[in-house]
Every structure is written in C-alpha cells, then in structure tokens.
Write a structure and sequence with these properties.
The structure is a single chain. By secondary structure, the chain is of the alpha+beta class. It has four domains: 4-171, Immunoglobulin-like, CATH 2.60.40.2380; 178-393; 427-630, Alpha-Beta Plaits; 641-700, no CATH class. 50% of the residues lie in helices and 21% in strands. It is built from 22 helices and 21 strands. The strands form three sheets. Strands 13, 14, 15, 16, 17, 18, 19, 20 and 21 form a nine-stranded mixed beta sheet that branches. Strands 1, 3, 4, 6, 8, 9 and 11 form a seven-stranded mixed beta sheet that branches. A hairpin with a 4-residue loop joins strand 16 and strand 17. Helix 3 packs antiparallel against helix 4 (207-227), helix 4 (207-227) packs antiparallel against helix 6 (241-267) and helix 4 (207-227) runs antiparallel to helix 11 (370-409). The longest helix is centred in the middle third of the chain and has 40 residues, at 370-409. It is elongated, with a radius of gyration of 43 Å. It starts with a strand and ends with a strand.
Length: 705
C-alpha cells in the first residue's frame, strides 16, 4: 500500500500535511498491522483518493492509512490532527476509533489512541475529545512509519485531511475566545429566563410554561454539549466518551421536539387546528423513533445500519420541511398566537436547514450557526411567550372585574349569612354535620357517629384562680386555650366546649390520633410550665380522660337561638375517667373501649389499673394509664418498673397477694411517687391480712366525680 510521505522542515504552531492518496477498507476479515507489514491485505479493498478525496466510510468498519513521517526538527508532544469534512451527522464530531502503530526501523515503538471509544486515561491527549488527535514524538532526523486505523460510528461521505499541531496550540485554553464569551452571556440569559418562566408556571399552573422550561433546559444542554464538549468530557465524561457523544445528539433532537410540543400548547392547536395538531403529533413520533434508531445504530452494528444512515437524512429533512410548512401556514392564519409563534420560530428554525444543507457540502470554511440558532430561538420564543403573558394578564383583569360584579350581586346573601351567624353555631360543628355553611343548618339537624371524646381539667384551678384578679384569670384561661386548641386541630379533632378550667374535644376519625393529641397537649403544657416557673408562677397540672363510643351531635334551641349540642353517655364516661386522675395520681387515663381502638399499641406505654364503676354507672370499665406525656424522669421510672407493676397487678387480680406484694414493693422502692403501685400494694396487704378475703374486689366502685 503506498505510504503518505511527509517531511517536517519547521513549524510554529500548525502545519497542514498532504492529504492521503490511498485508504484501505477492511473486508470481512479484520486486519492486523503484522498483516499489513507483510503485504497481506486479506479481503480488504484499497480506495484511490488521488482523483477524488471524498470516499464513502461505512459505519463500524475499519479503515487504514499509512504515513511515513520524518522531521528535520525535534517534535515533542506534537499532535497529528485527523480532520474530516462531509455529510456526516453533526453530533458525531470525531472518529469512534483512531488507533496508531508507530514503527522505527521495522520495530513497533509505541501505540497511540484517540476517538470516542477510549476513556481519557487511554488517549494520547486525555482532555480533548474533538478533534481526533494522535501524539507525535520524533527526534531530529528521525523517521517513523505510522499505521493508523480509523472507525466511525455512522456511514457518510467524507474527505480526510491531516494537520500537525504543536502541544502549545493543542493545550491552550479555549474559554478566552470571543465565541465562548458570547455563549456564556447566552447561557446566562437562558438561566434567567428559566427562573422567570418557573415563576410563571407556579403562578398560572399552565403546561405551556412547563414545556418552555423544558425547551430552555434541553436547548441549554444541547448547545453546551456542542460548544463545551472538550471541557465537559474532561470534567465529567472521562470514562464514558461514547455516552457523552450520544447524549449531545439526544439533547438536540429532544429540544426540537419540545419546541413543537410547546407550540401546540401555546397555540392550543387541539381546539383551533385539530388536523395540524394530529399531524405534528405523528411528525414528532416519527422524528423520535428515527432518532432513537439512529442512536442505536451508532452504538452497535445492526444488519441494516448502513441503510438506516442513508435513509435517515432525507426522512429527517422531510420531517423538518413539514414543520417548516406548518410554520408558514400559521403565518397565513387569523389566529394571533399562531402568527406570533410562527414568526418567532420560523427564522431560527430555518437556520437548522442551513446547517443540514451546509453539512452536505465539502468546504473548509463552514460557518458555525450554533449561536445564531440559540440566540434567535431564545429571543423570538421569549417574545412570543411575553405576548401570551400579556394576554393572560388582560384575561385575569377581565375575570377579576367579573368577580367583583358577582360579589356585589351576592351582597344580600352575605347579609343573610351575617344574621344567621349571630345565632352562633361553630363552623367545625357544621362540617361535622355535613353542612357547608350556617344557612344549611336547621333546628333538629343531628348525626350519630363513633367518636373518641377527650376531657381535660386543670388541677387545683380554684386555688389558682383565687390568686389572680378576674382580668388575670380571663387572660390565663385565654392563653391556655390558645396553646391547647391548635394541638387538637392538628390531630384531627375539634373543641366542642370550653369549660373554663377544662375543655371537651371530639375526635371523629381515630382513637390513635386522640391519644397522640393528648400526649402532645401534655408536652406542650410542659413547655408552658417552664415559662411560668421562669416568671415565678405556679406550674399547671392537667388531667385528661379519653373514652370511645357512640355520640349524637345536633342543633338544638329555638327559632331565635341555636346551639351545638352533644347527647351521649360517652361524654359523661369521658368526664368520669378524667376525674379518676385525682385518685390514681395520673395525668392521662383512657377507657378500655378507647384502648382497644388504638393502633400500634407498641408505640405507646400503657399500664392497666383495673376495673372501676364510676358514679352514675353500673357497668365496670377497664382503665388504662398512658404515661408517654409524663415528666421524662417519671416516664423513665415507670418504664423501668413496668414489668414488676404488671406482675403485681396480675397477682393481685388472681388473689395471689404475697406475690403481688413482692412485685409492687419493688416498684414502690424504685419509684415512691407511683401512686397506683402504692394503692394496689396497700390493697394487697389488707387482703393478705384478712383471712376471709373480704377486703378483695375485682372491681373498684368510685362514688366521687
């Protein structure tokens, strides 16, 4: 195979070398350098480039050129740039494989690597993905025989040119160039528009603004992947160059598709131009399918990939030409938004055709229209969006005027609501009855539901109130209720009655939420007490009782005065259970009906305190203490003694009084303040001292409230 003879006399930064006259195309059988050195080409085909430098390069096929290089000067770290021009897809900007074998006097001295198949650590120039560069090291008067193997990921017609660049030229930074500075300004504008459009989306909640955000995003990514490909490759994609190249292609296709999705929403083609709406849909689907197939074909060798690359360009050209005709048609319509969109997109979109036409021309003076497309697209689509935004503002202003008119017409209705509000029925109560407003509530309305009732009472309130003036007393109650009310609301309950030193709250949904709310009230009260004690005020103690059961709520009264009322034994039982806190020295008690409705009981700490018959009742009620809201020290003591406490009560109810005394004595020894443990310890001792067992009772009768 004839070699390309090149002698380097002298060069400063860049020197064009002669173009290859011959190139060898591998056949079915892969070639090795050893085969070429022996002159064994196997079934390879030699292509003569002396008459026409353009040759058809097949996808994923290897091509070989031979370069005989000599130099009159020392070359240290220079780069052999493999430049190519043709009708290749613009995103595959470099060779997939560029592998060089350097021979001196018939001996292989080293190998060089470039192309997107090699990670940065394997390449001759680790930080450069474009152009394809192979390293050249030559001593003065030295000669090298270089075999270069080239592979592209797609089929196209191209011409190959060689250029020798100095290491200073190759490694000089690009960010100082004018094109880079202009691009940075454009990217800054994109980010600013991105932020503004995001605000518009959150304001109007319209998809058109969301798709414009997506359009800006992919336009930004596509242009950045093209313009800053070396920098991005060096920073992020060192080990995945093929993925990076494919990503740039995907971004570019997606932003074109997004441009027309945005246009469909902007114009509302579904209603105004249904046929064009459907046509755009199928054009977009075709574009995405063809682009996806092309990406796959550039990744792996498919049986008909060469045909795919041949038919791809005319089909994509037809699709884009169809989009161009649609834009021209929109210009002729009477729809303002269609004309604005078309006028804004037509010029920069036509620039894409300029690129597609130019990339099929073999020219050394190609113009870069990337900034033209990006700048034109940003400017014109933003103007179109601004026009639509103005229309939105005018529409909202008109809607606001209509709303004011409607409000004036409803003034009489509002007066009726104000009159009815004077009868004072709580809105939360109305919601519980299924009423939207007070006008729907009528005398005799009621509902029956399964609920959990919470009663709370401030301990020693009488003594506390005697130390305050009426005004201080009122402010205290108001301040206290302001802290408790929101806690109940957060746990899906509402306050039915304020009882001065206590409250009655109803939880219609969940006993678990009721318990969580009661614990939250206790913790809130602890924080409140810290502030009170800091001001030399007495801490507040609170008793809480919970009970689950049926409840009737309704509207009672007469025609001139309505009130929200609850009628149920559940309320009375909850009140009695709250009163038991005084006997057991506890803060939070709940009935067994409430206890059995609690989900995930393991998340809480309970102690069974036996069964009682409260005043006004004949049926025993099981009582449980929950101490999760107690003071942390009390919680710790009750938790540590919980096992012995449960054993002590279990032995007591089995009338094994000696064992009960033994367990409860341990509890009291560790926690002398544990009143329930002391109560049952005293009972067990009395029962043990009574031979007839007359002191023992499974159920305690409570006569006080």
């Amino acid at each position: 195979m004839p070699s390309l003879e090149c002698t380097i006399q002298d060069y400063a930064k860049s020197q064009a070398l002669a173009s290859p006259n011959w190139i060898l195309e591998e056949g079915v059988h892969a070639l090795k350098v050893a085969d070429l050195l022996r002159g064994d080409w196997k079934d390879a085909k030699m292509i003569n480039l002396s008459l026409d430098p353009i040759f058809k390069m097949r996808d994923h096929h290897a091509y070989w050129i031979n370069l005989h290089l000599s130099s009159n000067i020392k070359l240290d770290g220079a780069g052999l740039v493999l430049k190519h021009e043709g009708d290749c897809w613009p995103f595959e900007y470099t060779f997939k494989v560029a592998e060089a074998f350097y021979y001196r006097e018939g001996q292989l001295v080293r190998r060089g690597f470039s192309g997107t198949s090699f990670k940065s650590s394997e390449r001759d120039f680790p930080k450069i993905i474009d152009p394809t560069i192979l390293k050249i090291d030559l001593e003065e008067k030295e000669q090298q025989n270089i075999w270069i193997r080239l592979v592209r990921a797609e089929a196209c017609n191209l011409s190959l040119h060689l250029e020798l660049n100095s290491s200073e030229l190759i490694n000089q930074p690009r960010l100082a160039s004018t094109m880079m500075n202009v691009s940075n300004v454009a990217y800054g504008i994109i980010l600013a528009l991105f932020s503004i459009t995001a605000l518009l989306f959150f304001w109007f909640r319209e998809k058109v603004y969301l798709w414009y955000i997506i359009l800006l995003l992919f336009l930004f990514l596509a242009q950045a992947a093209q313009l800053y490909r070396n920098e991005l490759f060096s920073l992020i994609f060192q080990n995945h160059p093929r993925f990076f190249v494919l990503l740039g292609s995907i971004f570019s296709i997606v932003w074109i598709a997004t441009l027309f999705v945005f246009g469909r929403l902007y114009i509302n083609t579904k209603q105004k131009f249904p046929r064009i709406h459907l046509l755009i849909k199928w054009l977009l689907i075709s574009l995405l399918i063809l682009s996806t197939v092309s990406v796959i074909a550039r990744t792996i060798l498919l049986p008909y990939s060469e045909i795919i690359f041949v038919v791809r360009k005319p089909i994509i050209g037809l699709i884009l030409f169809s989009f161009l005709l649609i834009l021209i048609y929109f210009l002729t319509t009477k729809d303002k938004l269609a004309r604005i969109y078309s006028a804004g997109v037509l010029f920069p979109f036509a620039s894409i055709f300029f690129v597609l036409i130019e990339m099929n021309l073999i020219s050394e003076n190609k113009r870069n229209v990337t900034l033209l497309i990006m700048g034109g697209m940003i400017t014109t689509t933003t103007m179109a969006l601004a026009f639509r935004f103005r229309m939105e503002i005018l529409n909202k202003k008109s809607a606001l005027e209509d709303k004011l008119t409607v409000e004036q017409q409803n003034s009489e209705q509002l007066q009726k609501i104000n009159i009815a509000s004077n009868k004072f029925v709580p809105q939360t109560f109305l919601n519980f009855l299924g009423k939207q407003n007070i006008l729907e509530a009528t005398l005799g309305d009621f509902v029956e539901k399964q609920v959990t009732v919470l009663f709370s009472d401030i301990r020693d309130y009488t003594a506390l109130s005697e130390s305050m003036t009426p005004e201080e007393n009122f402010k205290f109650v108001t301040s206290f209720n302001r802290r408790i009310g929101p806690v109940i609301t957060r746990h899906q309950g509402f306050i039915n009655q304020y009882l001065g030193d206590g409250i009655m709250a109803i939880f219609p949904k969940s006993a678990t939420k009721t318990l969580e709310g009661a614990i939250a009230i206790q913790k809130n009260l602890s924080e409140y007490n810290v502030a009170r004690m800091a001001g030399n005020k007495m801490p507040i103690r609170l008793g809480i009782g919970l009970h689950s059961g049926s409840l009737i709520m309704g509207i009672i009264g007469d025609e001139d005065r309505l009130d929200a009322a609850t009628i149920s034994d559940t309320v009375n039982v909850a009140s009695r259970i709250e009163g038991l806190n005084k006997i057991f020295g506890s803060s939070l008690l709940l009935s067994e009906d409430c206890y059995y409705k609690i989900k995930n009981k393991s998340l809480f700490h309970f102690r069974f305190l036996g069964k009682v018959i409260v005043k006004g009742k004949s049926t025993p009620i099981g009582i449980y203490e929950c101490f999760d809201g107690d003071d942390p020290k009390d919680q710790e003591l009750k938790t540590v003694t919980l096992v012995d406490f449960k054993k002590g009560l279990s032995y007591y109810f089995k009338q094994q009084f000696s064992a009960s005394i033994s367990s409860l004595t341990k509890v009291v020894a560790q926690n002398p303040k544990d009143i329930p443990a002391r109560l049952f310890l005293d009972k067990a001792r009395r029962c043990l001292a009574d031979p007839d067992g007359g002191q023992w009772s499974e159920v305690e009768i409570i006569d006080t409230k």
